[in-house]
Amino acid sequence: MAYPSRDVAERAFSNRKKAGAAGAAEVSMPRIGDESVAYADPRAPYADPQIKMTLRVGTVIAVMTYQDSDKDPNSAQALQSLAQMQAKRLRQAELGQVPTATAS
Fold first, then answer.
1. Residue 78 pLDDT more than 80?
2. Could you tell me if 65 and 41 are in contact, meaning their C-beta atoms sit under 8 angstroms apart?
3. What sign results for the dihedral spanned by CA atoms 7, 9, 11, 17?
4. What is the reported pTM?
């Protein structure tokens, strides 16, 4: 989601973080982009567990989800790697560059 200014994006991120994820536990991960937060959603009768990360880079907020996280013991690391790539690509686009960042 793109916002008209950095201030508006910062407020939107803050509101998302305060709201948290109902029934989810915050996952400790290094900061990605300008701000980030990750939550692990528990198994529900209608859905498999997942890890969700919300990150802000400049005026953009991105939400990334790793589905079926219980099937991969490295799901948090995989999500972290992909989120770092996405943050780099968003920063490149914000600077007017062609996004070329790849996952490591």
1. yes
2. no
3. negative
4. 0.85
